[in-house]
Amino acid sequence: MVYIDDVYADEVLDSRGNPTVRATVILSDGTQADAIVPSGASTGKREALELRDHEDRYMGKGVLKACDNVNTKIADELIGVTPYNQAQVDEIMKELDGSDNYENLGANAVLGVSMAVARAAAVSLNLPLYRYLGGSNAMTMPVPMFNIINGGSHANNSVDFQEYMIMPLNFETFSKALRAASEVYHHLKKIIANMNESTALGDEGGFAPNLKNNEEPIKVIMEAIEKAGYKAGRDIAIALDVASSELVTEGGYRLDSEDRILSAEELVDYYVDLCEKYPIVSIEDGLSEDDWDGWKILTEKLGKKIQLVGDDLFVTNEKILKEGINKNIANSILIKPNQIGSVTQTMRTVRLAQKNGYKCVMSHRSGESEDTFIADFAVALNTGEIKTGSTARGERTAKYNRLLEIERETAFSEYPGDSLFS
């Protein structure tokens, strides 16, 4: 019988140069696997707790306490346990922590171990991770959402909205969709340079130019799509992540680039106008995590026309998502494992969403690493969409390159782009 022989963690760096947890699991058959936990910049208030040291080193962002929790408390409980029962492993850690949001062990400690156990089990059984977690039903390649212009908390520029993304839809395969996105990205760089704006990159690999308002990035992207030889709306659509919780101010939502404050209803009308003018198929966090009344208005006005994604709103939490479903709020959910704390809890949230007709978007964080777990996870759970940055920066392209490997391994996998929003 194969069992967990050792569990430990160490402190490594993420893509923003901040410490994060790398957990390693060794099985009794000699299998060894690790996993690196990501970290977000704009985070929902109800996310599981990311444990930081709050001491002098690394400006208070060290994770030695979380690592120590893995090396002592978690290791003591998991050594000798089978790695092939993911739900059992995750439940042991949940009970050990004893809180709803992992405030004792740290969600970064628990998730690192959870992912590493899943990866070790897959390697031990000589299965790719997506097949181990998804079984024979894992067959859908995700449509990527490429963040090609960064704003908000992800860039030091004048743009209020956090992400302007492109989604390649009318393509036969993931590899062809990736090529199209890369070509648009490079044309976008030339356009921005010709505007005498900076082509410096934001946290997620998109460009971070100073533009005059929140509509201009869409216009620039539309031009880049055309110059790359594609048709906007047919081949490539546009998606937005407003991250509106970051815009909340007294009296409504402040758009600094336009020097005005909008009420929730006015902001929804702003989105309606943009959707009438441009091929926008998805808006994420269009209202703040606390503005459920605003979300109701947004869902009533656009919920039957486009994808409305809850990120800070739902924080990958099964209980909160259930409330949103009951109240008919949004129609899609962003899936970030570190918001909830374990592989098993993430899978439960995805299943609840899919059962109730909510679309799922597997997602990275702005503080990422070379770890490719979410690429396999998206295929395993047939989420149909993945959001993991632009076609630049190694921590982003690692996920896309892993998906290319999966596509090669699963020659008959579906790329649902042409049917995703039909």
Kindly list the characteristics that best describe this protein.
14 helices, TIM Barrel, 14 strands, single chain, 39% helix, Enolase-like, domain 1, alpha/beta, eight-stranded mixed β-barrel, 422 residues, three-stranded antiparallel beta sheet
Tally of strands: 14
Return the CATH topology of the largest domain: TIM Barrel
CATH H-level superfamily of the largest domain: Enolase-like C-terminal domain
What is the number of helices?
14
Task: List low-confidence stretches.
Answer: none
- What shape does the CA trace take? globular
Q: What is the CATH C-level name of the largest domain?
A: Alpha Beta
Instruction: Classify the beta-strand content into a percent band.
Output: 15-25%
Intertermini distance: 49 Å
Q: What radius of gyration results from the CA coordinates?
A: 21 Å
Q: Which structural category do the helix and sheet elements fall into?
A: alpha/beta
Largest sheet: 8 strands, mixed, barrel
Mean pLDDT: 95
Give the domain tally.
2
Query: In CATH terms, what is the architecture of the largest domain?
Result: Alpha-Beta Barrel
Fraction in helix: 25-40%
